[in-house]
Each structure stands twice: as C-alpha cells, then as structure tokens.
Design goal:
By secondary structure, the protein is an alpha/beta fold. It has one domain: 3-Layer(aba) Sandwich (Rossmann fold), CATH 3.40.50.1820. It has 6 helices and 10 strands, in the order βββαβααβαββαβββα.
Amino acid sequence: MTERVISYTEGDDSFDAFVAAPDGGGSKPAVLVCHAWGGRDEFAENKARALAELGYVGAAIDVYGVGKRGSDNDTCAGLMTPLLEKPDLLRRRLTAAFQAVRTQDDVDPDRMGSIGFCFGGLCSLLMARMGLPMRGAVSFHALLKVGAALETKPKARMCILHGQDDPMVPPSDVAAWAEEMKRVDADWQFHAYPGVMHAFTVPEANDPDFGTVYDADADARSWATAKAFLAEAFA
C-alpha cells in the first residue's frame, strides 16, 4: 500500500485529501471517504486504508479546508453548519474533491464511489443526488435531510446504513427519504440496526445523552454490507 496527500482548490479555498492506494500498476476503482463533522481525521484516513486493502484507491477528502478541524461539539458544529446553510458551496467543494480524485493516474474514472459517516454520510448521498458519475454511494449513520428535492433518478445506487434509535434521524426523515426514492425510481437499499444510536461505527462514541453510542455488532455488520455493496457496484 502507498499513501500520499493531494492538494486541490475550490475558488479561493485550499483543500487536501489523504489517498491510500493498493500496490501494483494499473487504474483501480476509487472510493471517496467523506469525513464526519470534525473534519478529515485519523478515522477517515483509516477507512481509506481499509479500502486500499480491498483493492480500491481510498481517498479521505476534505470539505472544510487545509488544517480546519473541530475539537469539541461547538467547534465541530461551527465548521459544519455554515456548509449546511450554504448548500451550493458544499456542492462545489464536493465536486472539486471528486474531480481531484478522479483525475489521479491510478484511478479508473469510470469506477468511482463514496462512503461517509454522520455529516460525511450526508455528503456521500449528496454526491449521488448531484448526479456525479459514480457507481455507488454508502452512508453510515447519515443525516437524511440532504437538500433540494430530486427531479430525476440519480446515476449512482445508494446504500443507507442506519441506527434504528438514532435521535438525529427521526422516523419521519426516513419515511420522507423512502417516499422520494420511490418517486424518482432510485436504486437504493436501507439497512436499520435495532437499538442502535448515532455514530455507531465510532469506537470513542459514548454519550447516550447526546445520542452517540458505539455498537460493535452494527459496526461490523454495516462494514460487511458496505463491502458487498461496493463490490457489486464496481463489478
């Protein structure tokens, strides 16, 4: 496995992505890893490494800017909220990251995908909804309110991995998502884990009052589902 950091810009802002690639020549499918609300961190980079072990180019992207990271709930919210309030800006930054990864020499531009966690799960699904040329998008404990209503069927298939007791994604959000997917005849699947809360893939999550609790079983099951989904999407 090789590792590198690539730089890219959007407007006047600079960003960087951590890329892990399997050994060997030739172009390979690439999977963007969309970070949670704290910014690109070791968790996202380790997911990129895990994807490289599966034979993909894993790229932990950045939508905040070089070195911009949250350290607690307040600073994380301070980074995330402005992008949720300016969806056009978030879309431009996601597009810039996508193009930066897609044009790497070891990436097959026709086999692109994404995964994301929490806010990053929203970003992963948003890239599919934007119509970016991807094969598949996976979300782990994602927020499901992801912007303007769809007018056409997304190109990418989508896989939502959800904690049934996630207080940040009420049943009404799940129902609204399902209704929209039905309306546009999207290719999607939804997996819910009973008794599981938000951030179930994050070992450090242990704040039931905030709604974030790690669940080892849901973590393992969701990763197995994501691996199978990506293998099918890239086949």
